[in-house]
């Protein structure tokens, strides 16, 4: 878990960056199929999707997911196992982000109007959840936590007082 703002920013950048890239590629491929303009369509949709995802993560979904997790789900047993806290928050984050980003995706595609908007949203939501949950739990989450762990270890090492011996002083 990030311990300060700098760690939160790095963790969110890695998490959102990878998740949005893969999910953008997935959604564009699902909509267009494998076509000549696929790579360009993925790259052109990525920046706006990333910006929206980072704002949602930091301002809306992240605080709500963490609040729900610590208030209603995480118990004393889970507090002793940080991996359980991480998995719980990850699942809640995926549920929240899929809910919001699916709406964002159909809005960007101009599919918010019409008689089948709820069916379109439901279809988009379930298909995104099917990919996002394992992607987060098995690939992106472990990568982001590994980078965060290395960052925290380097910070802890840098903050340790140097130990000098009598031999060092001679």
TrEMBL record:
The chain crosses the membrane at residues 9-26, 38-61, 82-105, 125-148. Keywords: Membrane, Transmembrane, Transmembrane helix. This is DUF2798 domain-containing protein. It comes from Lactiplantibacillus modestisalitolerans.
């Amino acid at each position: 878990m990030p311990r300060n703002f700098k760690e939160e920013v790095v963790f969110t950048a890695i998490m959102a960056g990878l998740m949005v890239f893969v999910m953008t590629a997935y959604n564009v491929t699902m909509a267009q199929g494998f076509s000549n303009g696929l790579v360009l369509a993925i790259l052109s949709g990525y920046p706006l999707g990333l910006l929206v995802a980072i704002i949602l993560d930091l301002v809306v979904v992240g605080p709500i997911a963490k609040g729900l997790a610590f208030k209603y789900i995480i118990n004393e047993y889970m507090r002793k196992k940080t991996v359980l806290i991480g998995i719980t928050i990850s699942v809640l984050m995926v549920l929240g982000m899929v809910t919001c980003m699916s709406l964002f995706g159909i809005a960007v595609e101009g599919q918010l109007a019409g008689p089948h908007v709820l069916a379109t949203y439901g279809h988009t939501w379930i298909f995104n959840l099917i990919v996002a949950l394992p992607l987060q739990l098995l690939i992106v989450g472990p990568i982001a936590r590994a980078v965060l762990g290395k960052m925290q270890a380097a910070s802890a090492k840098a903050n340790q007082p140097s130990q000098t011996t009598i031999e060092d002083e001679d």
